[in-house]
What does this fold into?
Amino acid sequence: MSQSNATRFAHALLVGRRINLRPLMQTPLLSSAPVAVEVAGGGIAVIFRFGVVVFFDVAAIGQTAFVAGLRELVTEPVDHGEFETLEFVVAPGNPGLLLDGVLQLDTDELACLQVVADVLAKSVTLDHHERLVASSFDRVEPLAEQLSSGRHRIRQLHGLVADIGEMLRVQHRMVGRAEIGEKPDLIWDHPERERLFLRLEQEFEIRERRGALERKLNLISTTAETLLDLVQAQRTLRVEWYIVILIVVEIVLTLYELFIH
It folds into this structure.
């Protein structure tokens, strides 16, 4: 596979919310953790259950055909998901460094490429979640401003439950599936690749982006929960007023019967 000093390409693509890897275990694999397979026409693909495929040295037409073949295994597929392309060369000396945007690798053995794939897949996943959170933030922020000014309306708060649910899904994907911010299991089997992983994680600011995303998630969740509590309090107050009115009506009717009849 080695093409020393020749510029090569890694392409990470979000194809859906989740990929069912179980059927792939029955096919010829280069590796099962993470799943890596050869692609017809040349190159390899590393497949992650959290919905990302990372291609190495695969032509665009080959990528399209491969993703089409995965369609039945993908939950909530997307046609134009987030993607990231990285140039790399095999050049001993400073493995893991990005020089002029080109990643320097000391080897192109599978374990090395899988480490690169892991970081690229997490970066693409973060891109997707950052977009989702930004959209929710845009919806929640005006409501928070109205709350502070006392101009809120109950009807505008009805979509908050969906926003809270979406934020919980994002947190589940980041922590439960993508395990963003954690070392891949591959590092335990290939400790010599930990240095490469840490350098790439720093280059793509994985931990920093996860931290920023979690702070936004917490802010959105707190704001949404506060607004929902306000809605519940307003509804409770309204019910209490209904009860008071019914009591008053009952008293009036009772007095009417006593004094008129």
Summary: The CA atoms of residues 12 and 54 lie 4 Å apart.
